[in-house]
């Protein structure tokens, strides 16, 4: 864990300018150890590891006995995965300062990197006894429990952290994450209400409380919680977004639009808010405004699949399939691995009776892992229409691996094998279909009427 410095301890411009001037000119200037610590901390926060390493080296040349500077060196070793060197230096520092909690924290950090999370927790528990500032250590223990998937223990550790520092909102989020994982919405609500009794103007807690009520579908209480979050901080974008979602659930679309629109004025437009505004306008029948916001959504974030799908579905509902196809093709050009795009591509081409393209869409969606029964069945039916009986048969055999006792698959296979004059296989699948669900014989009647009316099938059904 990086050592903690308050903002007052950040290096001033004079210190940084003086240090960077020294690096450029090779003139050796003196800094006290605290100045070095603040400079190193600054560079580490900025991700400038090379400059931090130079500051550590120069700092130890001027202050060779500084344990704090050596601890920064340990931190660099850990960052560069030189855990052996880090351990050796920590052992030396432990002899010098056995009551320095930072030594234990860095030791725990190494153990954590080695996936020794139980040992890391034990070391961190030792560190707690060495300091009055326990919040960060409890937080680290909570993270170790998360690595172990012990969410109840993690939750309790984050609670101790929040008790020590009520404004540690990262720990508050982690507590709620644990409650969510454990499906403890009611317990989460009780905890948040207790926390809010002591911290009534905490917008984060109100926001999280609203989310819990939303999960329980108690939309009126969720709305009240989000309102209190906004009262506590009227620039809290997340609260307006969540309130908008609640208003949508209550079908109060104009009010939802108002709340989403507020977020656009508070910060740069988000694709999510634009999409939701478009959706609300569509629900209100404001089709021109709806599609305008869908366009804005994909312009803001071309990688957001929900935006392209919203435009595609909009034009499909309008029965403007050519336009829907135009936009789903644009989406596929941006992300050709998106299975949802290929499913819409297939459906729209099918609507337009572009069977070759529809079949290609279903085939691609199956290749990308969309193994829904509907995709297998529709693809086989299209292949039959295209005269590709053998390909249709192979497609259905693959489908049967995912749906081994499905009458719709079996009857299709029976029909195909009868057409291919493979009577033995056809009979086998026909009997399977009758055993699984005899009513689905309608599949053969509709898709293979000449087979259904044949003497062979009638005799088989009579014997059955």
Draw up the topology in text:
Elements (H helix, E strand, L loop, with lengths): L12 H13 L7 H13 L3 H14 L4 H13 L3 H14 L4 H13 L3 H12 L6 H13 L3 H14 L4 H13 L3 H14 L4 H13 L3 H14 L4 H13 L3 H14 L4 H13 L3 H14 L4 H13 L3 H14 L4 H13 L3 H13 L5 H13 L3 H14 L4 H13 L3 H15 L4 H6 L1 H4 L2 H9 L1
Helix pairs in contact: 2-3, 3-4, 4-5, 4-6, 5-6, 6-7, 7-8, 8-9, 9-10, 11-12, 12-13, 12-14, 13-14, 14-15, 15-16, 16-17, 16-18, 17-18, 18-19, 18-20, 19-20, 20-21, 21-22, 22-23, 23-24, 24-25
Oligomer: single chain
Q: Write the H/E string, N to C.
A: HHHHHHHHHHHHHHHHHHHHHHHHHHHH
CATH third-tier fold name of the domain at 268-370: Serine Threonine Protein Phosphatase 5, Tetratricopeptide repeat
Helix fraction? over 70%
Provide the residue-averaged pLDDT.
Answer: 89
* Relevant CATH superfamily of the domain at 268-370: Tetratricopeptide repeat domain
- Give the CATH class of the domain at 268-370: Mainly Alpha
Proper CATH architecture of the domain at 268-370? Alpha Horseshoe
> Given the structure, what is the number of helices?
28
Radius of gyration from the CA trace?
32 Å
The amount of beta strand, in percent, is under 5%
Class computed from helices, strands and strand pairing: mainly alpha
Sum up the overall morphology in one term: elongated
Main sheet record: none
Q: What low-confidence regions span 5 or more consecutive residues with pLDDT below 50? A: 1-9
Separation, N- and C-terminal Cα atoms: 73 Å
